[in-house]
Design brief:
Blueprint lengths: L4 H11 L19 H11 L1 H29 L3
């Protein structure tokens, strides 16, 4: 469940698609009482493909954060 554009941006990076509606449920867009439950079921039905994609992308994200951590630490005075 996303409440900001940041959630869609992260999903776009992780799933390499502009159609983030399959991965982010905008809280502002929830209109029906059972909509969140329906979206959860849909994601649960696609769990294996979602996990596979995350398994591919998360290690790259971790490496990238380590790189930026090094850059930030180099810029910070002791």
């Amino acid at each position: 469940v996303g409440y900001s554009v940041k959630a869609r941006g992260i999903a776009k990076d992780l799933f390499e698609t502009d159609d983030t509606s399959r991965y982010v449920i905008p809280v502002q867009g929830l209109k029906e009482e059972d909509e969140l439950q329906k979206e959860f079921v849909r994601m649960f039905e696609h769990e294996s493909e979602i996990r596979e994609q995350l398994g591919k992308k998360i290690p790259d994200y971790i490496k990238l954060t380590e790189k930026y951590k090094g850059i930030i630490n180099a810029l910070m005075p002791e």
